[in-house]
Amino acid sequence: MFSGSARFHCSARKSVRRGEFLLIVADALWNCVETHTTECSPHPKKRSCLQQFCKVWPHADLVYAIEYLKAFEVFHRLNDDEKLHLARWVVALCAHLTVSFFSYKTKCTVTYHPDGSTVKISCVMDTPQKIEYHFESIQRMRSLEMDEKEYVLIKAIVVCDPTIDGLSDYGRNALDEQRSRYAKSLFSYMCAKRGTHKAPALFLEMLKLIDWFRSVNERRKEHHLLRSVVGARPECCKHGSKEKPLLEDEIFL
């Protein structure tokens, strides 16, 4: 059911087919990348998010999340419009879960990428939005002592969201059926691992974590919309540009 893409999404694809999605250029909002010095990498390398030939992880994680979504059989049972609605709702959320869990498992306190790059602490603490995205998400996973199996099931529950707008009755029922299966699997696993006395309360905390990630994602959408309205966009996305829109525009707008 779950392939390696369900875990960290750290392998690159040479080309990406995405229906309506395109990966074009880096957003200057994400240029605050530096080397992590001690606990996260024994051999850190200086990387710039906008440096030529370096992977732009905020964009790459979205692409990997799209590929992850396409690995679900239930996704291919939806019509094209439903696929687009679902992708726009869950892709950014999946990408955030992925980078947060990867950072947590590598014992980092802020967002950390597979190539050794991370975000500057001063940049993270700049706004509440960055604090919750790059720091608090990792701390919440750490407080629950989430393991890899729980993470994989949590992410599957996130993907199979029957509550989004634009779904037919068939699509909604199909997603709800799959989500119930993953939720039951998560609860059974937690009972076996954490004990029947602790599991119910911790299971509820896991579900609350999903709601928290969803609220963070909603605030990111609002922030992206605001930046677009006031014209704080990269040069390639301004009116009259011949370049294609950013992947974030396809997802958030």
How would you summarize what this structure contains?
This protein is mainly α and 253 residues long. The chain contains eight helices and two strands.
Descriptive terms for the model:
single chain, 253 residues, mainly alpha, 2 strands, 2% strand, globular
Structural summary, described in words:
The structure is a single chain. With 253 residues, the chain is mainly alpha-helical. 54% of the residues lie in helices and 2% in strands. It is built from 8 helices and 2 strands, in the order E-H-H-E-H-H-H-H-H-H. Strands 1-2 form a two-stranded antiparallel ribbon. The protein is globular, with a radius of gyration of 18 Å. The relative contact order is 0.14.
Mean pLDDT: 76
Strand content: under 5%
Radius of gyration: 18 Å
Order of helices and strands: EHHEHHHHHH
* Coarse structural class: mainly alpha
Layout: helices, strands, pairs:
Blueprint: E1 33-35, H1 57-70, H2 80-105, E2 117-119, H3 121-124, H4 128-144, H5 148-159, H6 169-194, H7 199-229, H8 247-252
Antiparallel strand pairs: 1-2
